[in-house]
Design goal:
Elements: E1 4-9, E2 14-19, H1 23-33, H2 37-41, E3 51-55, E4 58-66, H3 77-80, E5 81-89, E6 92-97, H4 102-112, H5 119-132, H6 135-154, H7 158-190, H8 201-267, H9 282-304
Length: 312
């Protein structure tokens, strides 16, 4: 996509809006304005977080705006937002952005008419509109967090739950970073000579509210993930407990039958010369012996406490 350039003469300054400029375009512009090259080149840096910088007669505002074309599973700042840079240089306001947000398009239409804005109104409008783009995504994020809470207790698909919670947590974390740094921008603008604290008080309160909702969602999702992991561990422990209880019962029974099987195995051998086989009371004696062995084992196991059910 090639560079699109729009120029407007405001009441007291000139506004130049650059859409999708190349690095070469920004380098040439820095030379023309006699401004630090780094300031303009950073306008294309996708990793740059919201920030306010001031260099002599040049002030720069780096904003992050919600990308309307973001992917459904976008989770990081680069995927969720796009960058809008505002440069205030003497009698010039320069805006640089790859995407063309709707509110900037509307501002350009406004400046074509007779009711053109001044510098203060333009900056205030861009900053306010950029932060208000977080309103709808945060509302959607809150609804998804509520749905996620219901799924915790309804579904047994642990992997799906953890994946969905991971997406929500990453998205909330990205929003929190952008809003936190945007608050720093508003605090800096309130101290700027061109503005007063009332200029951004309304949007500052909205941003603080957005930040509160974001941190609340982040905290809730983190707690729900920990709860899900705890419930999964509890189910695993309960299954292990039931398995161990079955094995305990089988082991106790095997203690009784093992010596009896040993006796039965001995007298079940087919040797010709076995004196006990011809004894008239051999069968009765062996049964009595088995009974005494079983009784002895029962008394021993009872003293050991192996017949009691374990406490829950």
């Amino acid at each position: 996509m090639s560079l699109q350039k729009y120029e407007f003469q405001l009441h007291n300054v000139k506004w130049v809006d650059l859409v999708h400029p190349s690095k070469e375009d920004l380098v040439n512009l820095a030379i023309m304005l006699n401004a630090p090259e780094r300031i303009l080149v950073n306008a294309l840096n996708p990793d740059h977080l919201p920030k306010f910088e001031s260099f002599n007669t040049t002030s720069v505002i780096y904003l992050r705006v919600i990308d309307p074309n973001k992917k459904p599973h976008a989770v990081n700042i680069q995927e969720l937002t796009t960058k809008v840079t505002i440069i205030m240089h003497e009698n010039l306001i320069l805006t640089i952005h790859r995407m063309d947000p709707d509110f900037i398009v509307q501002l350009r239409e406004t400046c074509k008419g007779e009711n053109c804005l001044n510098m203060k109104e333009l900056i205030k409008s861009i900053v306010t509109s950029s932060l208000m783009t977080y309103d709808e995504p945060l509302t959607t994020l809150e609804h998804k967090a509520d749905e996620f809470e219901e799924k915790i207790f309804k579904t047994s698909k642990s992997r799906q739950i953890i994946r969905e919670g991971y997406y929500l947590k990453r998205k909330a974390s990205a929003f929190r970073k952008c809003l936190k740094f945007s608050l720093d921008i508003l605090n800096s603008l309130q101290n700027h000579t061109e503005f007063v604290w009332k200029d951004f008080q309304g949007i500052k309160e909205n941003t603080e509210r957005f930040l509160f909702y974001t941190e609340d969602v982040l905290e809730n999702v983190t707690g729900l993930l920990n709860l899900h992991i705890s419930l999964s561990s509890q189910k695993t422990n309960e299954a292990s407990f039931k398995t161990n209880e079955v094995m305990r019962v089988l082991t106790v029974f095997s203690i009784f039958f093992l010596p009896l099987n040993f006796l039965a195995g001995i007298y079940g051998m087919n040797f010709e010369h076995m004196p006990e086989l011809k004894h008239p009371h051999g069968y009765t004696a062996v049964l009595i012996l088995m009974g005494f062995i079983s009784l002895g084992i029962f008394i021993w196991v009872h003293k050991k406490g192996w017949l009691k059910e374990p406490e829950e």
